[in-house]
Amino acid sequence: MIIFSQHDKAKDLAFNATRFFEDESCGQCTPCRVGTAKAATLMARGEWDAERLEDLCQVMADASICGLGQAAPNPIRCVFKYFPNELEG
Ligand code: SF4
Fold first, then answer.
1. What is the tens place of the pLDDT at every residue in 74-88?
2. What is the pTM for the complete model shown?
3. Which CATH topology does 10-87 take?
4. What's CA 19's distance to the chain center, in Å?
5. For 24-35, what is each residue's pLDDT tens digit?
6. How many CB atoms lie within 10 A of CB 43?
7. 85 alpha carbon to ligand 1 midpoint, in Å?
């Protein structure tokens, strides 16, 4: 369990988690190797491209061959599901 304060932004935390997954990806399979890197690049921009990020999430979750790549979309999807207000312009 990870606990954050009310001053933290879920969007920033998801970005940090995605960079962690990118760093930890062993590179064996493309959905994880490319997906985590591409997702981190998209998330580094101020505004998230939700459609492209969700497409990446789907591919990572469905086609990665181990739990790391399959779990990498979770922080992004949590922002979409629980903190959509942070995505408003
Ligand atoms: S999903 Fe697993 S096997 Fe595939 S690149 Fe990521 S860490 Fe490696």
1. 999 999 999 999 998
2. 0.94
3. de novo design (two linked rop proteins) (1.20.1440)
4. 8
5. 999 999 999 999
6. 22
7. 31
